[in-house]
TrEMBL record, chain A:
Annotated transmembrane regions: 73-94, 101-120, 126-145, 157-179, 199-221, 233-253, 259-280, 292-312, 318-341, 362-382, 402-424, 445-468
Topology class, membrane: Multi-pass membrane protein
Keywords: Cell membrane, Membrane, Transmembrane, Transmembrane helix
Cell compartment(s), UniProt: Cell membrane; Membrane
InterPro entries named in the record: CPA3_Na-H_Antiporter_D (IPR050586), ND/Mrp_TM (IPR001750)
Family affiliation: Belongs to the CPA3 antiporters (TC 2.A.63) subunit D family.
Superkingdom as given in the UniProt entry: Bacteria
Species of origin: Alishewanella longhuensis
Protein name: Cation:proton antiporter
From TrEMBL, chain B:
Bilayer-spanning residue ranges: 28-47, 54-74
The name this protein goes by in its record: Portal protein
Source lineage: Bacteria, Pseudomonadati, Pseudomonadota, Gammaproteobacteria, Alteromonadales
InterPro entries referenced in this protein's UniProt entry, alphabetically: MrpF/PhaF-like
Taxonomic source organism: Alishewanella longhuensis
Compartments in which it is found: Cell membrane
Topology with respect to the bilayer: Multi-pass membrane protein
Coiled-coil ranges per UniProt: none
Subcellular location, principal: membrane
TrEMBL record, chain C:
Keyword Calcium: no
Keyword Transmembrane: yes
Species: Alishewanella longhuensis
Listed Pfam families: MbhD, MnhB
Annotated protein name in UniProt: Sodium:proton antiporter
Compartment list: Cell membrane
UniProtKB/TrEMBL annotation, chain D:
Organism: Alishewanella longhuensis
Biased composition, class Polar residues, residue ranges: 102-113
InterPro entries linked: PhaG_MnhG_YufB
Membrane-spanning ranges: 6-27, 64-85
Disordered: annotated span: 98-122
PANTHER family: ANTIPORTER SUBUNIT MNHG2-RELATED
Database matches in Pfam families: PhaG_MnhG_YufB
Keyword terms, alphabetized: Membrane, Transmembrane, Transmembrane helix
Name this protein carries in UniProt: Cation:proton antiporter
């Protein structure tokens, strides 16, 4: 577990040092990101060899202490956030001069990494609340880096986030009052199917849905994510909304009494369908390119909801694998999308989708990154998105849910529509005159890296599935 | 003993009307002052009635804050004349 | 009987204050009512025999929040009337949650699960302190406390992005000497609360908030002009709580016998906790002060 | 001991009377400065009587602490009375930004500090 500890403490200490000596910020950022990636890889190997690891902080017994647990899903998520942090930091380092990125970006993004890693590791309801709160505060602070125009969305984000935390905390307080424990493995199987548990679970779920921007409660997300600087949007969309999702999955798979599972599955299913179809249509209709990508996050989260609903109602291991594959593929693809769109926006100085006409000639690399990441979002082979969708289709076939198969098909078409809306415009050879600017190559390559990573996921499908299956057995 | 606390509480409630009615900022700041000193009194009575000496510390803290906060507020609210 | 009457009146007053604060059309009234609400909440915690919470609520709710709200208020344009939300949807949502809470609160067992409090009392002698709240906060669940310190720091970092400059005016000589007279008392009381924390209600957070209120008063009277985020020593003070916490944790990881994160050896636990709490108090005080006072760029020395 | 208890209760009730008097004064007095007196003086005296009443029933340590609290409240009542009155006097000369009069009366604020703010309000 000292590896896991390092994963949390290194970015935390790095952030503190950055605040003390702002001059060292960039070097510290890169060093911490590299070190975390290496540690996360080592941890994944360790977990694969020796099974899941546990730590009771302070060495007290489980009733008193906070439990950390690194199973294979956690190890994968730790690696994912470390890798994404590294990639986004690289991009931010490349563009910080041009984009006038605020100096506070470095410590804040490092703290974001630390709080995410702490969240993945924690198995304690109250500690998870603290991590959520931390995540929300960092995210809001990061959104405000855009200056005055971001204040309003950031404030909305803050208020929604606080309200959501409060709902979650109330739910946890009810559970604590009734069962007298906060440790998830200790509570497992203890909950009775009475109205107290129901109220607590409803509060917890509402709070987490609000934080994760699940469909009917997503209203704060598009404005906040679109207002932030490009590296921040990439981190927020790729990682921050996944934190509450992780807790939601933990709560419903380990805590909830069996009698509630069916109702919850139906509720999640309705939300998933709404997200996949309606948020997809919203992405299709919005005139701004960054808002399009932000709405696409809401829509893509629908797949995760669908996978969770299916997990709860069918108890097939395929759906668990599909859920985490979606999370990883979406994180990488969305980071690439935001970085490439941000790069185009910064270089070309345009905000609307319609103005991207002919962008494939002026900024071919960035457009290529967007197209590859978009392909993964749609689910075109070979990509991580395709892998996730394929696993899910297999599961649906196994469970004989032909109606949902159809829905998945329609959702794919919707996402294809909004991705192709951008791509087709960009490949339109409308203006033959070359514009008078020279796009920088390095940031475009760096924006391409996550897209290549999501591509590479398809080639590592076997080991990935093996890791996720290990968790289930 | 608790009836005494209730009576002081009700007298605070009476004073609260000034916050709403005003008419000047001073009247409203006065209500804060009233809440400070009456709050200290209630805290002292509670400490006796519940026999919890720890509440005396709370009263002490309230008293110190009642001393410090008006000075801060007035300074913050001052305007260039 | 008297106790019941007191509870009823207190609950009514708290609800009344909350309602009028929310529905007040004038922001200044709302802030005043909110400060009064803070005093009442402190009394409510005192009545519920939770002096730790009463101390925290008194320091934060009745003290600093008011200064913070007024700082925000003086930046507002004149005669600003807030619109009272008339939208039905949030009200329905809140009503639903309240109903669910009321419905489920009846089912919470009256006497809480005895296992946990028994566990706490068994482990208390090894924790290094005699007050269970402090033992939970700084030993059993110290990781939560560390992260909470980080949340406070982040609040400051976020607020810094939004801050615009505010003019500070020189105080009258009366308020200046009053704040100077008050400051040794506040420092003394801070130390008292911190020291008491090991055995009785009190601790880093309450002490830090109290110290912060003293610093705020001095700062608003144009004293302590060095107190700004630009000053590296101030930054060090604001980060000291976290730094000491993490470094102590690493130290215990490397040199203690069992090599566990955030495990204090029983023999030194009391000293370690007091050390961490002292630095945490300093950090909380500086952070809260910077949060309330901000970074005034312009100062005027008129009387 | 009963006469001590009686004395204690007498003092406590007397304190209550002063608290109520302070509140009534805050409600009924005609202008703000007399209201200021009502609160800062009557309440301080009320607190003092309550402290005296309680200390008859308490140990010497608690009594000391309560007397300290009273001393503090007494000092702070005197000082903040002064501060608030000065603040109000100055604010009456120049209309404060946070206005509690009719909105039309704020127009005479011509100072450089408040000018940009009023412009924003329009």
């Amino acid at each position: 577990m000292s590896l896991a500890l390092g994963l949390v403490i290194i970015p935390l200490l790095a952030a503190l040092l950055m605040l003390l000596w702002p001059r060292l910020a960039r070097g510290l950022q890169l060093a911490a990101a590299l070190l975390c990636t290496i540690l996360a890889t080592m941890l994944l190997q360790l977990v694969q060899q020796e099974g899941s690891q546990q730590l009771f902080i302070g060495g007290w017994n489980p009733l008193l202490a906070i439990r950390w647990q690194a199973d294979s899903v956690t190890a994968l998520l730790l690696l994912l956030s470390a890798v994404l942090h590294l990639l986004v930091s690289g991009y931010a380092l490349a563009v910080q001069q041009r984009d006038k990125l605020a100096a506070a970006f470095w410590p804040l993004s490092s703290l974001l990494l630390a709080s995410l890693q702490a969240l993945w590791l924690s198995r304690d309801l109250f500690n998870l609340y603290v991590c959520l709160e931390l995540l929300g505060m960092v995210a809001v602070a990061l959104v405000t880096l855009s200056g005055d125009k971001a204040m309003r969305p950031a404030l909305h984000y803050l208020l929604f986030s606080l309200f959501a935390s409060l709902c979650y905390l109330l739910g946890v307080a009810l559970l604590y009052g009734a069962y007298g424990a906060l440790d998830l493995p200790l509570l497992q199987g203890q909950l009775q199917a009475n109205s107290l548990t129901a109220a607590a679970l409803v509060l917890i779920t509402l709070g987490l849905m609000l934080k994760a921007a699940w469909w009917p409660l997503h209203l704060w997300l598009p404005a906040a994510h679109a207002a932030a600087p490009a590296p921040v949007s990439a981190l927020l969309s790729a990682l921050v909304v996944k934190g509450p999702l992780f807790i939601l999955v933990l709560v419903w798979t380990t805590l909830a009494p069996a009698a509630f599972l069916n109702v919850a599955a139906y509720a999640f299913l309705v939300c998933a369908l709404g997200a996949l179809l309606l948020a997809g249509v919203a992405a299709l209709r919005t005139p701004y390119s960054k808002t399009l990508v932000a709405y696409s996050t809401v829509a893509q989260l629908g797949y995760a909801m669908l996978a969770l609903a299916l997990m709860l109602s069918f108890n097939l291991p395929v759906f668990t694998a599909a859920l985490w594959l979606f999370v990883m593929a979406h994180a990488l693809a969305k980071a690439a999308c935001f970085l490439s769109i941000g790069e185009m926006q910064q270089t070309l100085g345009v905000k609307k989708v319609a103005q991207l006409k002919g962008a494939s000639q002026t900024m071919p690399l960035a457009m290529f990154a967007f197209a590859v990441a978009g392909g993964s979002l749609i689910g075109l082979p070979p990509s991580g998105g395709f892998l996730a969708k394929w696993v899910m289709l297999l599961g649906l076939w196994q469970a004989q849910q032909y109606f949902l198969l159809l829905v998945l098909l329609v959702a794919t078409l919707v996402s294809a529509a909004y991705i192709f809306r951008v791509v087709v415009l960009a490949f339109d050879r409308a203006e033959p005159t070359a514009p008078d600017f020279s796009p920088q190559l390095l940031p475009q390559w760096l924006a391409l890296l996550p897209a290549l990573a999501v591509w590479a996921m398809a080639f590592f499908s076997m080991p990935l599935l093996a890791i996720l299956q290990q968790e289930l057995s | 003993m608790m009836y005494l606390a209730v009576a002081i509480l009700l007298s605070m409630l009476l004073g609260m009307w000034r916050v709403i009615k005003g008419p000047t900022l001073l009247d409203r700041l006065l209500t804060i002052q009233l809440f400070g000193s009456a709050g200290v009194a209630i805290c002292l009575i509670l400490a006796k009635a519940l026999s919890m000496p720890a509440l005396l510390d709370v009263a002490l803290l309230l008293a110190v804050l009642a001393a410090a906060i008006p000075a801060a507020l007035v300074q913050r609210l001052r305007r260039q004349i | 009987m008297g106790l019941l009457l007191f509870d009823l009146v207190l609950a009514t007053v708290v609800l009344l204050l909350a309602g009028t604060a929310i529905f007040s059309r004038n922001l200044t009234h709302a802030v005043m009512l909110f400060m009064a609400f803070g005093v009442m909440m402190a009394l409510a915690w005192a009545r519920l025999a939770a002096p730790d919470l009463a101390l925290a609520e008194a320091a934060i709710g009745a003290g600093l929040t008011g200064a913070l709200c007024f700082t925000a208020l003086v930046r507002q344009p004149a005669a600003l009337d807030s619109k009272v939300a008339t939208s039905l949807l949030p009200i329905c949502f809140v009503a639903l949650i309240t109903a669910a809470l009321l419905f489920s609160v009846w089912q919470i067992p009256v006497s809480p699960n005895p296992a946990l409090s028994h566990e706490v009392s068994v482990a208390l002698p090894q924790s290094g302190v005699a007050h269970p709240v402090t033992a939970v906060l700084l030993n059993f669940r110290s990781w939560d406390t560390l992260l909470e310190l980080l949340v406070l720091l982040l609040a400051l970092l976020g607020a810094q992005q939004a801050q615009s400059s505010l003019t500070l005016y020189a105080g009258w000589s009366l308020s200046l000497s009053w704040s100077r007279l008050l400051s040794p008392l506040i420092i003394l009381l801070t130390g008292y609360l911190l020291w008491r924390g090991a055995a009785a209600p009190g601790g880093a957070f309450q002490a830090g908030a109290l110290l912060a209120s003293g610093l705020v008063v001095l700062r608003l009277n144009q004293q302590l002009t060095w107190l700004s985020w630009q000053n590296p020593w101030v930054r060090l003070a604001a980060l000291s709580g976290l730094l000491v916490f993490v470094l102590t944790g690493l130290f215990s990881l490397l040199w203690s016998s069992s090599r566990l994160w955030l495990e204090w050896p029983t023999a030194y636990a009391g000293a370690v906790i007091l050390g961490i709490e002292s630095f945490a108090t300093l950090a909380i005080a500086v952070t809260l002060t910077l949060l309330v006072v901000g970074e005034p760029t312009e100062e005027r020395a008129d009387a | 001991m009963s006469w001590l208890d009686g004395l204690s209760w007498f003092l406590l009730l007397l304190g209550l009377v002063f608290f109520i008097a302070g509140s009534l004064g805050l409600l009924r007095f005609p202008d703000q400065f007399s209201r200021l007196h009502a609160v800062t003086k009557a309440d301080t005296l009320g607190l003092g009587l309550v402290v005296l009443g309680l200390s008859i029933q308490s140990s010497w340590r608690e009594t000391l602490l309560m007397l300290l609290i009273w001393l503090l409240v007494m000092c702070s009542g005197a000082v903040s009375c002064q501060l608030l009155a000065r603040f109000s006097r100055d604010a009456a000369d120049a209309e404060p930004l946070i206005s509690h009069q009719e909105p039309g009366q704020t127009a005479n604020s011509t100072s450089p500090a408040s000018a940009p703010v009023t412009k924003r309000a329009e």
